Amino acid sequence: MLCLTCRRVRPALSRSDYTAERALLIVTRGLCACGLPPGRTRPPPAVREPVAAPK
Ligand SMILES: [Zn+2]
User: Fold this and answer.
1) What is the value of pTM for the model shown?
2) Lowest-pLDDT range of 1-5, 27-31, 32-36
3) How many whole angstroms separate alpha carbon 33 and alpha carbon 38?
4) Nearest to 25 by CA among 6, 43, 40, 38
């Protein structure tokens, strides 16, 4: 259930994985994000670039 890399809880693969024990582990250890493709773990906040003022 735990990720061997970050020692956090790996995402549940099926409904039967959503147990109270898993929920408690997620709260105490956090969720593993190693398996997620790069860039999807924490998307950067959408920053609106200011419109370039004419010089
Ligand atoms: Zn991990």
Assistant:
1) 0.54
2) 32-36
3) 9
4) 6
Report phi then psi at 16, rounded to 5. Answer: -70, -15
- Token code pair at residue 14: 């099926």
R_g of the chain computed on alpha carbons: 18
| Distance of CA 42 from the midpoint of ligand 1 (Å) | 14
Written as six digits, the tokens of 16 are 């039967």
Question: How many residues can be counted in the chain?
Answer: 55
36 — pLDDT class (breaks 50, 70, 90): low
Cα–ligand 1 centroid distance for 17 (angstroms):
17
